[in-house]
Specification:
The chain is mainly β. Helix content is about 5%, strand content about 60%. It has four helices and 30 strands.
Length: about 525
């Protein structure tokens, strides 16, 4: 019965989408003015353990003059088995997101008021980053009221709301405000304040405050933000009220660009600065992680999750274009844990030495031989503490352009990994072949082989392979079908990670935007 329900939803959406755009010239179906719709559907069936997952997000938005409203209907039958993802919604279908807003004035002098569910980012997320990312199943939207106003170069945002915890309960209340001044030509100034009010009255509030500066002059762009964290219970329990704060954070970046060269440097110091609900299941802030986002599979195989309470480090990346045909990218970053003098270690009564949490080096050279062939050669080096591994990953990618429509891409990845706990060394190899017929169709064949030697003279090899088809219906519907198997691994974006178990079966995805 469930399979028939899933199939009905998929076929219905396909019919609507296909009819809508195949007959758009005859105005067979036109969306009313001001109405927008998007739908994201994901269905998978694991043939190995006979499990299926159905997820669907349907969003409707309507705008009329100064008024806007919207809802998002979610259906999970069942939801992702990871409890950090499902948030108590095993079999679930409901309106999970709804809002009503009024927008008066313009971007220079105006006010916007939102009641219902909303997202908000202050600065670079050092204090507040309320957002949704379905790739890693993050959704810490707030339910409440948000007001944003602009006047005479000032931008003020104030909000009060509650986020859903791991049991889908909204208990704690978050109050936050942000003020930014844009009146200077070469610099922007801002300040943020936030306070979390626990549902249990006996618990003290946690408050965070920060000040930021964004200079921009000539070919230099900068950003710097410093914040402090306070909680009366912890100040009394850990420091006997001898400290005025229980945590602090600093993030800074500087970007220089000149002609064919650019370089960006970043520094972070996050000391007991994670901003969570009283039960610890909601993260209100997500500071810059200084971890490089890779497009290749094996480079993402050993991620290091962001720890906003115990990190210090820097990252630097340089780009140089030797010519119109040749370019080079070099990136280096290191993250270490904090010393015993840190707030984190003193609050938690620890005495741990400084350790390298993450070290990564990445080099990439791109060269276009002619209009038909482009080669990318890359090398990645990675050390990460949580799994205590060290890996080296060379990569070779070639793109063959037959014309403006047809392209073939061939990617070879090889990774040698050493487990520093056991001294075991193992290898992963990935071969990916992709054909793209722009802009409507693509097909990929990906094979991965892992070679291990758990005991001397005893080789163990595992193989995963899948084929994936992609097709675009008109300009607003993307279809994807995957058949085969893939290895377990992590998906990480901005230092926030989601574990995906090994998969063998069929996976279908459809994204529609009307």
């Amino acid at each position: 019965m469930k399979n028939r329900t899933y199939l009905f939803v998929i076929v219905l959406l396909l019919i609507i989408t296909t009819k809508n755009y195949s007959q758009s010239s005859n105005d067979w179906f036109l969306m009313p003015d001001g109405l927008g719709m998007s739908n994201q559907l994901e269905y998978s069936y694991n043939t190995k353990d006979k499990t299926e997952i159905f997820e669907n997000w349907l969003t409707l938005d309507y705008t009329k003059n100064i008024f806007s409203a919207g809802i998002r209907f979610e259906a999970f039958q069942p939801n992702d088995p990871d409890p950090s993802v499902s948030r108590g919604k095993d079999k679930y279908a409901d309106i999970a997101y709804k809002y009503f807003s009024v927008d008066v004035g313009d971007v220079e002098e105006g006010i916007n008021i939102v009641a219902g569910n909303f997202y908000k980012l202050f600065g670079r997320g050092l204090i507040l980053k309320s957002y949704e990312d379905r790739n890693i199943r993050v959704d810490n939207n707030l339910l409440g009221v948000k007001v944003e106003a602009n006047y005479m170069g000032f931008t003020l945002a104030a909000l009060s709301g509650s986020a859903a915890n791991s049991n889908n309960e909204r208990n704690d209340i978050l109050h936050a405000a942000d003020l930014q001044y844009n009146g200077f030509d070469i610099v922007k100034l801002g300040a943020t304040f936030a306070s979390n009010q626990p549902a249990i009255e006996e618990l003290a509030r946690t408050t965070l405050a920060s000040f930021r500066i964004q200079p921009s002059y000539w070919n230099l762009d900068g950003y710097a933000e410093y914040g402090i964290k306070r909680n009366k219970d912890i100040q009394f329990g850990a420091f006997q009220n001898n400290e005025s704060k229980i945590g602090e954070a600093f993030y800074g970046s500087l970007n220089f660009y000149y002609d064919v060269f650019s370089i960006v440097g970043e520094y972070k110091h996050y000391d007991n600065y994670a901003f969570t609900s009283s039960d610890g299941t909601i993260f209100y802030n997500t500071a810059p992680s200084l971890r490089k986002e890779y497009t290749y599979q094996l480079l993402n195989r050993h991620p290091s999750p962001l720890d906003q309470s115990n990190e210090e480090g820097y990252a630097i990346e340089a780009n140089y274009n030797f010519s119109d045909e040749t370019s080079l990218i070099a990136n280096y970053g290191i993250t270490q844990t904090l010393p015993t003098s840190s707030y984190y270690q003193r609050v938690n009564d620890l005495a741990l030495p400084i350790a390298t949490q993450l070290k990564e080096l990445y080099l990439q050279a791109t060269h276009s031989w002619n209009e038909s062939i482009t080669t990318i050669a890359a090398l990645g080096y990675n050390e990460e503490l949580s799994a205590n591994t060290q890996s080296i990953t060379p990569i070779l990618e070639n793109k063959f352009y037959f014309d403006d429509v047809n392209t073939i891409k061939v990617v070879l990845e090889h990774q040698q990994t050493e487990n520093l706990n056991t001294d075991e060394m193992y290898y992963n190899d990935v071969l990916a072949l992709e054909y793209l017929r722009s802009p409507s169709f693509n097909v990929s064949i990906v094979t991965e082989m892992q070679t291990r030697e758990p005991q001397e003279d005893r080789l163990v090899r595992k193989l995963w392979s899948f084929i994936q088809f992609g097709y675009k219906l008109s300009n607003h519907t993307d279809l994807s079908l995957l058949v085969g198997s893939r290895q377990a691994g992590n998906i990480c974006i901005g230092g926030v990670c989601r574990y995906e178990p090994a998969f063998q079966g069929i996976e279908f995805k459809m994204l529609t935007r009307l």
